[in-house]
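Board notes (copied after class):
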Amino acid sequence: MSALPHPAPFSRFGEWLSAAETAEPNDPNAMAVATVGADGAPSLRIVLLKAWDERGFVFYTNLDSQKGREIAGNPEVHLNFHWKSLQRQVRIGGTAALVDDAEADAYFATRPRDSQLGAWASLQSQPLPERAIFEARIAEMAARFPGDVPRPPRWSGWRVTPARIEFWQAHEARWHSREVYQRAGDGWTLGLVYP
């Protein structure tokens, strides 16, 4: 494996995400987030990447949701981007930590009002006896916040700081390319793995 400067995998990710933004018809920033519960069972869901830089990859959620509780209990998280039209995927393994309040507030302020109200109304991942209850809670929040909607205290972002980033590119005969960046101190090493 060769040693590389710190931004190497992030530059590559930016190039691939930019290509996906051109080629993918819907949500090129969609990624699977894998967490592990207290029982040791994995859990997987799709969320949207909302920010990324050399510090890591950020998504937002209710901290009392299943994923929020699981990350709080075990911050080791895996992300996966799959861009079918490009025959590419990026696998990221790392450690999640909460973004600071100012960053969460700034992002929350950019969300549409209905999404902001939904963040207050939803008891995410808890049982919902019927849809009408959720809709009534949204109406209550709209009345409670007739103007600006502040960020709920239990809603924030997680930043996944990667330790490993794999770039996978499909090839004919399933002779795929797999390039793996591993964090090494302040830099990265790059190597290949068999398809």
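Comment from the instructor: The first helix runs from residue 8 to 23. The beta strands are 2-4, 30-36, 42-48, 51-53, 56-62, 76-83, 88-98, 155-169, 177-184, 187-192.
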